[in-house]
Each structure stands twice: as C-alpha cells, then as structure tokens.
Amino acid sequence: MLRPGLVGLFALVLTVAACGAPDPDGGENSSGSQDGGDSTAEISLLTASIPESLNPLAGFGNTGKGKINEGLLTLEGGPTELPELVPHLAAADPEVSPDARTWTVTLQEGVTFTDGSALDAADVVATYEAIADPASASPIAGDLVNLQTVEAVDDTTVRFTLAEPQVSFRTALLIGIAPSESITAGQQVAESPLAQEPVGTGPYRVESFATDRLVLVANDAYRDGAPELKRITYVLAADDNTRAQRMTAGEFDGSVLPPRLTETFQDDERFEVFHATSADWRGLSLPADNPVTSDPAVRMALNLGIDRQAIIDGVLVGTGRPAHTFIPPEYGEYHNADAVFPYDPEQAASVLDAAGWVMGADGIRVKDGQRAEFTLMYRPSDLVRRDLSAAFASEVLPLGFDVTIEGVDFDQAEPRAGQDAILLGGGDTPYDVDSQIYKALHSSYPAAGAFYDNPSQYADPEMDAALHEGRTSVDPAARVAAYQRVQELYVADPSMVLLVFLDHTYVQKASVGREWDNLSTMLEPHEHGTAWGPWVDIDQWTRRS
C-alpha cells in the first residue's frame, strides 16, 4: 500500500523527461536524441515524487533495483512473471540450512563504495543491525522481525540467523547496503547523513539533491563499468495532469501517467506507451470500529455487489486485472483461482436482507436505526485513487449504501483509519507470496507495523496459523497448501474490498527507443515510475549503433 515513509518518501516514483540539460526555468532542452545524437548522454526525468530521504536504512531502493545502493540480491525476470532473486553484491546464491534458519552469504570481492572504501562483511552487518535496531526508527524494520543475529564470519562472509524458518527471507536480501563507516549505532534514520548524501556501490552517485530535483551521475569506478547514460536529472511535477500537459508540449521524453491520461498518446507517432504488469493492488479498508463496515454481512455484500471488470474498464481503460485476494495469478501454484467473489448483486442483497439491513424509502439500507453510510478517504493528489473511490461509491449505491468520498492526506487519514474507510494500495515487495500477504492479514498488524498494514484489524486464529505455516514451512507443497487455505479463509470472511491489480502505464518519446537499446519491463511492485517501466535497467542501456 502507499506508504508515506517507505513508498511516498523513499521510492523513486519518477518519469522520464527530455534528453539534455535542464533549462533555468525548470523546462528541459531537447538537444539529445531528436537532434541526431547526444554525445553527453544525459537524460532528464520528470517525477511525481522526489524522495525526502535517500537512506537505504530507511527503505530507499529496497526492491533490489537501486541505482545508488545495491542489495546482496537483485531481480531478474520478464514482464509477466515473478522475478527471480539472483546474486548482486553476493558472489553466489545464499547457502541456506535445511531448516531455513541460517543463511550464509559470500560477498563479491573488489567491490567499492563511491567513497573509495571496499565492501566487506562489516558493512552488511552494520546495515542490517541498524535497520533492526528500534532506536533507528527504520520504516522497514518490520521486514526483519524474524532476524535473530547477523554476523561477519570473515571479511567476505555474512551469516544471518533467524528465530524461526523463513524461506521468504530472500526478499530481505534486496535491501541496499551502506558502508559501516557511515552508520552510527542508535541514530534515527531520519537524522543520518545518508538521507541526503548516500554512499553506495551502485552504477550512479548523487551529484545534487533538493526538494524538487535529484541529479545522478555515472559512477566511473563501478565494477561492471560506468553506465553509458552519464547523467539522470529527476524534476518534480506531482500533479498527473501537469505531467501529461508537459509531455504533450514535447518538454519531456517520458512519464508515468494514469491509464486514462495515456490515451491521447496512443496514436501520436512521437510517443510510445508502455504497460507493465504488477502485483500492485488497490482496495479499500473496512474499519472494525465502524458500525457499518464492521458487520461481516456488509463486508461480504460489498465484495459480491461490485463489478470489478466494469470499474477497470471505466476508470483504468482496461489496464488491470480484477483483484479478489492479495495474490494475483502471477504467483502460479500459490494463486487460488477459485478464491473469487462473483459479481452477484442479487446475492449481495440477500445477504444484507438476512442480516437485517432493510432498504429505506430513500434507497439507503438501515439496521437498528443505523444508516448504511460511511466515508471513503483517498489520497487527493492521486487521480486513480480518486476515480476508483468514486466508481466504488457508484457501484454500491444500488445495493443501499451511501458512501461519501473525501480527499485526505495520509497524516490526516491515520487517526481516522479506525472509523473511516480508505482507498489503499499494496504489494511493496511481492517477490514471495509471504511478503505479499503476511502484513495484510496477520493479527499482529497493524500494531507491529503501520496503520495501513491490516488496516481493518482482521483477526482470525485460523488465518494466523495458515500464514505462519506458509512463512515457516520448508516443504514447497506445504507452503502451497497453506496459501491456498489463506485465500479460502479470506473469501469466506473478507477484511477489505480489493478492486484491481494495476497495470502501470508509461509514456516515452519514440526517439528514446530509437537511440537506446535494452529498454525493458518486469513484473512491478507497488513502487513504480522511472525507477521501473522501460527504465528499470537504465544503467544497462547501450546506444544503438
């Protein structure tokens, strides 16, 4: 889901802008590819969000595709399949004990940070210990709740010991590594110098960083050779319509845009439109303290009474797939194809009638004097969330629900999350089914995390047991059975109304593809933008001859 710390603040949700150096007024010169070549190999990127912190200890670049700080593992895969987690700073795959409690990682030799220091086991230990330390207040500390110890066996070997088995611990090895010399034990991540001046092993380093602009330049000492694309400038434009307008005006080479705003670019030969499949879901919480949404009959009826495909077609111009549970089909055998809510408004009405929700003369149901009404909050700057909220409210009105939608920023939404529904998103690290679903349904959340983790405060001992079995089992067949059971339990008693798995949509000038090779996409997490899309491996771009 959209996290103000982990995603909104630390993820590069960025969009590509024109080749060439920025103009003084914030526009961009188009002196690159469309003029027949740019020997300086610069590109500017228009972004929906500039991160407040570049600190990997705070979660910046923790998805395995960081350009500044790199993880022990990285992602490798195609556009519609779960990526494999393969060695990056690690020299080889981790050695995992039979009980999946001990993970031993050997580091590549000859890797250096941008400050000139050599990567060693002490850097890895310091990074993970700092994140796990409650004093650091790291927003990704919850990813390491099972980590018991991390120790340097020698200069190039690190051993992680877990409190209990966890096959999905591989996803925790995507976290970016910082040099131990830059880490102060007990220091809050927000106060660390790494927030503004990160030191990494990646293909780029920071040249300048401000609230409205971030400039990366090639790391000439990078172990695999400096990228051919020498400079990337990220420029802030938070409003979706503004980015679309500036694209139409020809100012920028590319952008991440809501699906409907990409329609005008489809038939324009100056541009290419990219669609990237994701495990990024959108849905709304059903607060446990709200007298309407706390009723199991209401939760079931709301899931049965909406036409998800109609919402996708209307709001997203067809760019997405219906979401019933948190596990999309890309998870293969873990996905339960039978765990769905069929669109059945008649059955939804019957469920409500049986539960005592009587249709009133004004078309809104009432039970024991309680009107079937509630507020649905959405992030006001996000057009997709706004339109999904409005579509949901329209869909459930014939069922007898009066839903008021309200644009509310996250800091204002948090204290209201127990009473008012909120349109959320998720799939932060979807590279194992455990990391996709555990926080969304386990009863230890939201107390163990943030208010957007299990926001409806769902609590079921049988669900907890199935989630624990899936997390701790080393038997693949047992894990599959556990997650099949998780989905069965969920559709029998849903805690939310999931709507869609998004296809992320991007627009790029056609001239970029004519000049550069290796533009690709992969299955994307909740985080998206020019850190993803056709630019996910921008450091590997090569000029066409």
From TrEMBL:
Instruction: Give the signal peptide as a residue range, or say none if absent.
Output: 1-20
Q: Which CDD domains match?
A: PBP2_NikA_DppA_OppA_like_19
Molecular function via GO: peptide transmembrane transporter activity
SUPFAM superfamilies for the chain: Periplasmic binding protein-like II
Which Pfam family, giving just one, matches this sequence? SBP_bac_5
Q: Which residues form the Solute-binding protein family domain?
A: 84-444
Q: A Gene Ontology biological process annotation?
A: peptide transport
* A cellular component annotation (GO) from this entry: ATP-binding cassette (ABC) transporter complex
Q: Which InterPro entries match?
A: Peptide/Ni-bd, SBP_5, SBP_5_dom
Q: Which keywords does this Swiss-Prot/TrEMBL entry list?
A: Signal, Transport
Q: So what family is this one in?
A: Belongs to the bacterial solute-binding protein 5 family.
What protein am I looking at?
A: ABC transporter substrate-binding protein
